[in-house]
Design a protein that fits this description.
Blueprint lengths: L9 H10 L23 E11 L3 E12 L13 E10 L4 E10 L5 E16 L12 E19 L2 E16 L16 E14 L10 E11 L8 E13 L4 E13 L10 E2 L13 E2 L2 E13 L5 E3 L2 E3 L3 E13 L10 E13 L4 E9 L10 E7 L4
Antiparallel strand pairs: 1-2, 2-3, 3-4, 4-5, 5-6, 6-7, 7-8, 8-9, 9-10, 10-11, 11-14, 12-13, 14-17, 15-16, 17-18, 18-19, 19-20
Length: about 400
């Protein structure tokens, strides 16, 4: 069972993150209303992380998020904050990963751009394919991945956006030992391959805030095709996501979230099959413990805001802390085109706490603990997550 220990220098990070938020459009002794242009800030938040696992050894890394606005010269109160997120990490086993994500909104949210550049040379566990894989069958694999992903959407009318997406990914795989199911299975793309998905996207988005949403809808549909002349196999994929938020009281919010991913083609590389489990959906499951042609999952999360009305000022630390508590429950399943069954859905339950390190943009750091199913002869599946931003 994968086990990891995460140690975070929270107080130092909070101090640095708060100190970095001093660049405002105008400075006032009394904070202006939340919908005022004068309240907009740039912020930088570094989150140092120390981890350990048997397959990686000691891991040293950081998560750094920079939040800003693209229209400072000609500001619009409706413009959402843009973010850059950089996550580098190294291990004592000479492994490395670096992940750069961009989420850019232009003035008035007319255009929305997203990008992701990633390289990693990290081991992972492969458990097989399907919804009933066994822990004792797992194989430890070497995986090297190059990934470049870009999306652009333009507002068409009202809250509707339309755009295009491009994804290139190159993977190589090899077994680190002779144990487990990997060496006995006949898999498409067993040693890796490359894929280039070209897609179209449609979005409906009327959320009041993209980071800590209190009310509104967010719906996204992406259909993409990978032609054979730029991919190892010709493939088609469909991704549908949705979220709805209900403000129950001034401090409490109910969020509903669903996702459906599907990969279609005559020959499906195992490493591109939709996977269940991460820090956003189906928390408590090792990513890829269950994978198959289709993935369907949903969750509900209740969030309660806590504002202690405190002012902490010690040396360069000057914060007014605000928190939120969360409880969530979900269910999900992977299946091929012919074996969907309601009794295949697995549970995900947990809770956590959020700290607002940029109150105006409603940017949070969250800690979640989740549990999943307990299979016969195995320990209950579970996970502890330390992340920047909300799960959805």
């Amino acid at each position: 069972m994968y086990k990891a220990l995460t140690i975070t220098a929270l107080f130092v990070s909070l101090a640095i993150g708060t100190q970095a938020q001093q660049d405002t459009v105008s400075k006032e002794s009394t904070p202006p209303p939340a919908d005022s242009l004068a309240f907009r800030k740039r912020s930088f938040f570094p989150l140092p992380v120390l981890g350990y696992s048997q397959e990686k050894g000691l891991e040293i890394g950081a998560a750094m998020l920079y939040s800003f606005y693209t229209d400072n010269k000609n500001p619009d109160i409706t413009t959402r904050n843009s973010t850059l997120n950089l996550i580098p990490a190294v291990t004592t086993e000479s492994q490395f990963k670096i992940d750069l994500k961009a989420n850019i909104w232009t003035r008035g949210n007319t255009w929305h751009y997203k990008g992701n550049l990633r390289y990693h040379n990290f081991p992972l566990y492969f458990f097989g394919i399907g919804n009933e894989t066994r822990h004792d069958d797992r194989s430890l694999l070497n995986n090297t991945r190059y990934k470049a992903q870009f999306e652009a959407e333009r507002r068409i009318t009202g809250h509707f956006y339309a755009g295009a997406s491009l994804l290139y990914q190159n993977d190589s795989y090899s077994s680190k030992d002779d144990k487990g199911i990997y060496n006995t299975m006949s898999l498409v793309g067993k040693e890796g391959g490359h894929v280039t998905f070209i897609g179209l996207t449609g979005i409906f988005d009327n959320r009041d805030n993209q980071n800590y949403t209190r009310k509104g809808w967010w719906l996204r549909l992406n259909a993409a095709y990978a032609p054979s002349f730029v991919s190892s196999e010709p493939l088609f994929k469909l991704e549908a996501q949705g979220a709805h938020f209900i403000s129950l009281s001034p401090k409490s919010t109910l969020g509903l979230n669903g996702v459906f991913n599907s990969l279609q083609g005559d020959r499906l590389p195992f490493y591109l099959l939709p996977e269940m489990g991460n820090d956003n959906m189906m928390r408590g499951y090792y990513t890829g413990r269950y994978r198959d042609q289709n993935y369907l999952a949903g969750q509900a999360e209740y969030r309660y805001l806590i504002d202690p009305k405190m002012h902490i000022k010690i040396w360069f630390v000057d914060i007014r802390p605000k928190f939120a508590l969360a409880a969530f429950a979900g269910a999900g399943s992977v299946f091929n085109n012919h074996n969907f069954a309601l009794n295949g859905f697995k549970p995900s339950l947990g809770g956590g706490i959020r700290y607002f390190y940029d109150e105006n943009a409603k940017l949070t750091i969250r800690i979640d603990y989740a549990v999943g199913e307990k299979r016969d002869g195995e320990s209950r599946q579970k996970g502890l997550y330390l992340s920047l931003a909300e799960a959805f």
